[in-house]
Every structure is written in structure tokens, then in C-alpha cells.
Amino acid sequence: MKRFTVVLMGALLLVGVDAFTPAGTAAQIRERPGSENRERLERQIRERFENLIQTELGIDEAVSAELRSTMESFTEERRALGQRQAEFRRRLRSSGSLLDVDAAQEVLDELVAVQRAEGDLLAREQAALLQVLTPPQLVRFYTLREQFTERVRALRGGGPPGRRGGGGNGSTPLPIGWPYPL
Fold first, then answer.
1. Residue 133 belongs to a domain
2. Would you give per-residue pLDDT tens digits along the chain (182 residues)?
3. Which of 10, 71, 70 is nearest to 44 (CA)?
4. Cys staple from 174: which of 32, 83, 178, 182, with CB 3.0 to 4.6 Å?
5. Is residue 167 in a domain?
6. What predicted TM-score, i.e. pTM, was given to this entire model?
7. Residue 180: inside a domain, yes or no?
């Protein structure tokens, strides 16, 4: 539990870097003074999360490395989908009830497209992960990842665990597949 708390505290410091910002913005943040500390902290959090996964799933370093590689192979697509979801949420909030029939239909079509893209990504990711983990291990992995994500969300002020999308403060929800990569 102590290890998990350390990981969560470190994760709070990372909110807004790679997993939550476009690549250009993340690069700018890294160029700022003190960015070496942030990069070191990111690496430490990744390592601690991987240690937690290794311990909880009973996997060795080789399987852990394969798991990391598999998760990282979906990184760019996951980020792009997260940006698409964020843009959709912004559009939905800004348009409200001011849409005509055609614009409203466009919003509804985009909702379905985003949900399909998320489902497709999950299915492909799951198939790839099942090449590395057994079904029970994968279920446990998803459980650990979701618990981690929900706790970070709650600590970020995004509301109680189980609530999706953060609070009314305009915060960015954690992306699909988080904490890979940080």
C-alpha cells in the first residue's frame, strides 16, 4: 500500500505532461528548467507501477518488458483518441441546445464514431495483451489500472471514484490506457 501511495503522489505531479498534452506542449514543458526532475519522476512512477503489476500479476521481468512494449505500441493512437474525445466534449459543452437539426445530427454521429473508435482500440489492445498475459492476469491488470486511474482522478479533484471525466473545473480526464505512457 505504501508503494501505491508513493506512485499516486508522484502521478499527481505529472498531470498535464505527456499523457495529457499534445506532443509539442510536452516537449516545451521538458525544455523548461527543472524538467529533468519531472522526467526522473515520470520514470520512477513508471517503474513503481511496473513493480506493482509484476508483484500483483506474478510475472517476471521478461513478461513485464513485453507488457510494457505492448502497451507502448498503442500510445500514439491512445493519445489521438484522447484528444478527439476532449475535442468532442468541448464541442458538446460549447454548443449546448443552440444546435440546428443538421449540427445536432453531426454531434450525434461524432459521439457514435468516438465510441466505436474507443471500442476498436480496446479490442485490438486486448487481443495484443492476451498474447502476453493470461485472461485472469489481464482482468487483474485492467482492475489495477482502473483503480490507479480512479484514485488519481479523485485526488485531482475530479470527483469520487467511479465518476468519469473529472469535475466541472475543466480538467482533462485521464486517457484510455493510462498510466502507459506517463
1. yes
2. 444 444 444 443 333 333 333 333 344 444 555 678 878 877 777 788 888 899 999 999 999 999 999 999 999 999 999 999 999 888 888 876 778 888 888 888 998 999 999 999 999 999 999 999 999 999 999 999 888 778 767 766 765 544 444 444 444 444 455 455 43
3. 10
4. 178
5. no
6. 0.63
7. no
